[in-house]
Amino acid sequence: MAPPPNYDQSKLRNNPKAMMDIIDYHVNNIQRLMIFSQRKLDATEKVLAKLDPKPKVLVELGGYVGKSALAWATMLQKFQQNSQGNVSEVKVFSMELEPDFVKIIRGFADISGLSGTLEVMEGGSGDSLKRLKAEKGIEHIDVLFLDH
Ligand SMILES: C[S@@+](CC[C@H](N)C(=O)[O-])C[C@H]1O[C@@H](n2cnc3c(N)ncnc32)[C@H](O)[C@@H]1O
Q: Quick check: CB of 96 below 6 Å from ligand 1?
């Protein structure tokens, strides 16, 4: 079994990779969680990296505890980073039905320093998709990830 992760919040702050490692630890060693695996995320990253222009807005339907949402936010930031290390604006909208999961994703995004990039929308995806245009002014989505 892999060694237990470091839960010290000071080690997790602004460190999405450490937060994602904790989720993976629970998935692999404690409880089977219904998440998109790191292997699939890595494969998807290779596909998205080939898009031209690189994606800036990603919407996922089904956030659960935020593993894929944190991964998408990190990926999109990486794609848009220039040689000086500056990142142009990217946005991930994670739509989640269950209020408790919404709180978990928001908490993880905050600790990881991704709350400016990752926005969680509470409610059914159908309603949230309508709100995306009406309330957030989003007219264009580059990537749609369906994972209910
Ligand atoms: C497979 S999990 C998502 C896993 C997540 N994408 C990941 O890989 O880390 C599916 C999630 O979809 C949510 N869900 C189910 N029906 C939904 C709906 N109609 N609208 C929004 N979320 C929904 C569930 O509550 C659950 O948290």
A: yes
